[in-house]
Write a structure and sequence with these properties.
Rossmann fold, Alpha-Beta Plaits, 3 domains, 4-stranded parallel β-sheet
Length: 410
């Protein structure tokens, strides 16, 4: 293995006065859904808002004095950028961070606030990454990779030591996977602890289904590069596994599964409502897997389970969009569109039907102009708050019973 349990123990000692030991909380709501006890490891409360400070600090603390003097460079859309910036600040190292144009303003501001120089470049993380590597070759600055380096993996693995220490009887750990540095570090640390304890601890990774390079890579025992990556979970939007993480994960992790975009949105809302936690989509993938029910179907009783909330750095604008999508996916928000005859009383009748069904209209838009509209017709779009999928069906049925033909937009 490119990373050993001893490496992670050493990293843990190095981080003692650098990071917070984030809390673990029991979740009754998730426990009911999974059918076994579920705890959440709140790494979203970590300094800089995610686990990334762990690996970044270890990678940079181990640099020689000459390397530190040359400075470091990295590329990221958010969490890695903040982790590198904070670590550099604590170590007195000059940091240059490339972030793509359009990166969330709060993440850019936070990275600058930690003292790093931020350069906006390209429209994707891959373009920013290529520019960061070019800058490193040109200037001699040390490139800090987000996941494909032994020191990064060792730093992230310290989370595994904390989890086993805080929940000694843990049976299953669920964590998100992007490039794989986190799951790889967890696997090394936790499997070593499990061997010491003389029992098994299961490690399950979760990816967004639109950014899932690990399942095909593991199935074919070779790195697979995705042609397209598109997910609201920008923190794990990685199109190709890291070479070192892949080597570790294929040997030690038990499974890597996927979740849908709708489940990610619902997971974020679930954590807000039930556990009062602000979690970014990438940090909530483990919760999404529980909500989908696929873990229970695959494994039955997972035993005492810890779900890692890996980060909480979410742009408020993205949060707004995710909440809207999550409510829609849960049947708590519905938009319908239908054609009406342009005559007095039609809109009032529709409003009364919806009100009688105890749904709440939040927006109405109508137009008399359009290529598909005949003279005397009106196209109307209605947004409403609903109480679940069954309630949505009843509203639609009530409108259809009065002769209307609503089409659900979302």
């Amino acid at each position: 293995m490119p990373v050993t349990a001893a490496d992670i123990e050493h990293a843990s000692h190095m981080l003692e006065d650098v990071i917070e030991q984030t809390p673990v909380a029991h979740s009754r709501a998730l426990s009911r859904l999974l059918g076994s006890e579920v705890h959440i490891k709140c790494e979203n409360l970590q300094r800089a808002g995610s686990f990334k400070i762990r690996g970044a600090y270890i990678r940079m603390a181990e640099l020689s004095e000459d390397e530190k003097a040359s400075g470091v460079v990295a590329a990221s859309a958010g969490n890695h950028a903040q982790g590198v910036a904070l670590a550099a600040n604590k170590l007195g190292i000059k940091a240059r961070i490339y972030m793509p144009l359009g990166a969330a303003l709060p993440k850019v501001a936070a990275t600058r606030d930690h003292g790093a120089e931020v350069v906006l470049f390209g429209t994707t993380v891959d373009q920013a990454l290529a520019e960061a590597q070019r800058y490193a070759e040109e200037t001699g600055a040390v490139f800090v990779h987000p996941f494909d380096h032994p020191a990064i993996i060792a730093g992230q693995g310290t989370l595994g030591l904390e989890i086993v220490d805080q929940v000694p009887d843990v049976d299953t750990i669920i964590a998100g996977v992007g490039g794989g540095g986190l799951l790889a570090g967890l696997s090394v640390a936790v499997k070593a602890k499990a061997e010491e304890l003389g029992r098994d601890i299961r490690l399950i990774g979760v990816q967004a289904e639109n950014a899932a390079a690990y399942p095909p890579s593991l199935a074919g025992d070779a790195l697979v590069t995705l042609n397209k990556v598109s997910t609201i979970a920008d923190g794990i939007a990685v199109g190709r596994p890291g070479q070192l993480p892949f080597q570790i994960i294929k040997e030690l992790a038990d499974d890597v599964t996927t979740v849908s975009e709708d489940s990610l949105a619902q997971a974020l809302i679930f954590m807000l409502e039930r556990n009062k936690m602000v979690v970014e989509p990438a940090g909530a993938v483990g919760v999404a897997a529980i909500l989908e029910g696929k873990l229970k179907e695959s494994y039955g009783d997972l035993g005492n389970t810890v779900v890692l909330l890996s980060g909480g750095n979410i742009d408020p604008m993205l949060m707004l969009k995710v909440i809207q999508r999550g409510l829609s996916a849960a049947g708590r928000y519905m938009t319908i569109k239908m054609m009406l005859t342009d005559r007095p009383g039609e809109l009032a009748l529709i409003s009364r039907i919806i009100a009688d069904m105890d749904a709440n209209v939040t927006g109405v838009d109508h137009t008399r102009i359009g290529g598909s509209l005949s003279m005397g017709d009106v196209s109307i779009t209605i947004d409403m708050e609903t109480k679940g999928h069954a309630h949505c069906d009843k509203v639609i049925d009530a409108l259809e019973a009065q002769g209307f033909r609503p089409v659900v937009v979302h």
